[in-house]
Structures are given as structure tokens and as C-alpha cells.
Amino acid sequence: MTMTSPFDFDLVVKNGFIVTASDTVRADIGVKDGKVVLLMADIPVPADCEVIDAEGGFVTPGLIDSHVHIAQSAAKSLGAKSADNWTTASQSAVAGGCTTVIAFAVQNRGTSMQSAVDAYHDLATNNAVCDYSFHVIVTDPSEEQMHTELPKLIEQGITSVKIYSTYPALKLSDEEILNTFYAARQYGVTVMVHAENSDMIAWMTRDLAERGMTEPWHHGTSRPPIIESEATNRVLALSELMDCPVLFVHVSAPDAFKVIREAQTRLMSVFAETCPHYLLLTAQEMKAPGFEGAKACCAPPLRENPEDRERVWENTVNGTVTVVSSDHAPTKYYDEFGKQLGLTKNPSKNPRGDFRYIPNGLPGVETRGPLMWSEGVCKGRMSPNKFVELNCTNAAKLYGMYPQKGTIQPGSDADFVVWRSPSARKTSKVTVKNLHSACDYTPFEGHDIEDWPVLTILRGKVIYDGKTNEVVAEPGYGAFLKRGKSSLQGPRNKWLSEWRPKYMDEQAKVNGA
């Protein structure tokens, strides 16, 4: 009902339970110029103000997917192509309740990080539906890149990098990892690590191929859990030596979680990310008939033992995991530049294909939020507040966007997802025909969903209507986010010997110590 009001709002969201990482409260939300300005019970609605009735449902912050690959192929050397561009990927994101994504700008060896960022700006500008930013994948941590270009990128709002301990085109040596950690600690940059032992994978892959064991499921055979846990433990040692905070991405192996948990118990600044596919799928997916198992090939691989999946749930809920992301890395299945490369580039002529040539990665930016809400909140594995912590707030804090993003409070962006009340939930099944990605399959086909977002709202504007399953924002509505530094735990200033970084001595002199 419209009435005389002392307030000036563009939008009021009424009759909802506001969920943050700490609280759930029945209140209305007043929005002006894309920002939250008031949280209050029964806000009087001014004339000419849009009203959204949450109908007793939950209102969470807009979800943040801090690990997506957009217009970037994980197997470019094979000729693979990403299924999504910035428009289709961001449309898919918002249809799953995601209002912010952080994608990867890849530095090719011998080139600059700045050129990589510029290229990704060209791809994203005027094409994204949701807000976005970039991490830089570092492949060449030279003195010039780490100490001249990196500070300039920070000024531009790029405050995170990713490094790999595997893949020939991407992997860094231990010395290069130390160089990266050294600079990251100095400048306050968040470091993400894909931790797998490259030499172990290469040896196992070569031996399997010599035996003709190239079917899709042998992708998992070539990468047993110890390959992830060894690399995690080694990178943790490098991190501790350099006193540099580190985030391990897409963690799946129980022993990797174990060493991360032990490091956290010792108060190291160590963070972990996992993904819905490690919570919900197993390696059995790679044994689907014919070549269908290629749809489930990702790295680290889905794990064989269902008990491993339960360990992922435990570590997700008990606080070891900091963020849940999708690792959206889509290549089409029915495409000569997609998963079919595992059949066409097939030296052994194995009728079920060759896992060495299957592009790694799964689509998932649209299904992440609904699956985590369904399997986590609706089925009682986690509270709505824990869901917000894992899918919104911690990502905003870790990547320097909080409190602009990741929460609902005065001054924050008016990014919301409206979910139904428990009594009004509508169960459905995941099916690729209802998704908005350009990818032609989903690994979660047929999976039960207890609820899907009713509305996705970005900066006070409805951008997805769940009742019609329609993305209603135009490409270009999404804006680039200039991020600050992480507000989560930083360096401890605890050292393993008398050695200290040179820049600490220089800073001490400046401060007169």
C-alpha cells in the first residue's frame, strides 16, 4: 500500500527474512540509487516507489562466484574453445542468484600482466550482465612483473593472483612460487593456488597411455588424492616460509583438507575453496556409457570414494572451507573444439576416447547457488547464515569487496536474492534446457532442486525473474569492480629463521626502528 512517507526510496523489499552471515531478521529493505539505505520493520512506502514482496521468504545478499573461467579455455594448446562469452556466462550467473563474478586474465609466458588485464577488459566491457572483476593468472613472476606491474594493477583494483603447480603452460617452480609469495606479501595481494603435483601427473599419465588405459575415468586414475595433498603440503611450506597468506582453490582430497586444517589450527593465514561438484558427485560419473564420462572430467578430479565426498561436506561446514565457488570452466560436449577433442585427438584409437585430450572443467556458475541452497540449507546441512558466509560474505572479504558486496547493510550495494519460504518451495530438476549458459550440458542433469531463486536483484534492479526464468537485464549493465585488499587474516610476522624480507628492513628504517 502506498502512503505518505518521510523516506525517499527507489525500491522497498518487504515481508522477507533478511539473512546475513551473522543474523536472520524479519525486516524490510529500503533502497536508493542502487544502495541499501535502511533496514527496518514495516518501512512506509513513498509514492512512486517500486515494491517487491518477498512473501515471507529469505532475502540473502547477491551471491559472489569468485572462481569462474569466462572466454578462456583450459586447453587452448589443444584448440579447445570456451562455450561461454561474457554475455552468456553472466546471464547464466544471474539466473542462479549470482550478482558478482571474478574471472581470470591469463598472463602468457613472456608477456605482461597488464596486457592480459587489458585484453579481458576488452572482452567484458559492455557485455556483462552482472558486476565483475579479474584475478591475474601469473605464469612469469619476473622482477618487472612482480614489483613494477603488480603495484600498478593494485591501483586499478586488481588485488588477487592465481598460480599453478601443474599444467606445462601455467605451472611455476617452487622458486617462482616463492617469488610470487614474496611480492604478494609485500603488496597485500591475495594468492590463489591450484595445487597438484605436475611430475606425478605426467608420470602416471604416460604410464597409463602406454598400457592403453585412456578411457575418461582414467583421468581420475592419473590424479589420485595424494597428488593434490602432496602439492598442498609443499605449497603450505613455501607459504609458511614467506609468511604469505594463501588460498587453495577447488580442494577435494581429504588429506589436503587435513593439512589445511592443521595449518589453520596453528593460526596460519590459510584459506580453502571447494566446489559443488566435489560435494555432490563422484568419479563414477566418469564411467558413464561410451564417451559420456568426458562430461565429468575436471581437475582435481571427482573422487572415487563416496566417503571422500562426505569429508568435503564436513570441511565445508566446520569452517575449514572459506568460500564455495563454481570453477565454471565450460566447453561444449557436442563440439569439435570441446570435449570431443578426446575422441578426435585419440592416438590409441580407443573407442571411448583419450582422457589426455579432454579439456578439463565443468560448467556450474548457474547451478552453484541453487544446489548449495538446496543441499545445504533446505536439507539441513547448514544454516542460511552459513550459506551466506560461504557464498557471499567471505568472498567479498577475501577479495577486497566488503562491505560493498557480500552483505545487506546500509551503504552496501542493493544486491539481493529472494528465496521462497519453506512452505512455498517448488521442487524441480536441473536440466540443461532451462539453463542460460551456452554450454550444451550440465554435470548435474536430473539433480533434484528444492528451490530456485525467485528474483535476482543487482544494485536495486531486478535482473532475473525466476517465475519466468528470464534474464531481464541488458548486456552492459554489469560494472567492473575496483577492489581493495583482503580484510581476512593477513601475515603473522612469524618467521622460521633469522631471515626477513628485505622490504621489512627498509620499512623499519623508514619508521625509525
Largest sheet: 9 strands, mixed
The beta-strand count equals 19
Query: What is the residue-averaged pLDDT?
Result: 95
Extract low-pLDDT stretches. Answer: none
CATH superfamily of one domain: Metal-dependent hydrolases
Based on Cα principal axes, name the global outline. globular
Put simply, the count of helices is 14
CATH class of one domain: Alpha Beta
**Percent of residues in β-strands:** 15-25%
CATH architecture classification name of one domain? Alpha-Beta Barrel
Radius of gyration: 23 Å
Structural class designation: alpha/beta
Distance between the ends: 65 Å
Write up this protein:
This protein is of the alpha/beta class. The protein has a domain at 61-375: Alpha-Beta Barrel (TIM Barrel), CATH 3.20.20. It has 14 helices and 19 strands. Helix 3 runs parallel beside helix 4 and helix 7 (225-242) runs parallel beside helix 8 (254-265). The protein is globular, with a radius of gyration of 23 Å. 55% of the residues are buried.
Short description:
The protein is 30% helix and 18% strand. The protein has helices at 86-95, 113-124, 143-155, 174-187, 198-210, 218-221, 225-242, 254-265, 276-280, 306-317, 341-344, 368-378, 384-398, 502-510, and strands spanning 11-19, 24-32, 35-40, 50-53, 58-61, 63-68, 98-106, 131-137, 160-164, 190-194, 246-248, 270-274, 323-324, 416-419, 428-429, 448-449, 455-458, 461-465, 470-471. The modification N6-carboxylysine is found at residue 162.
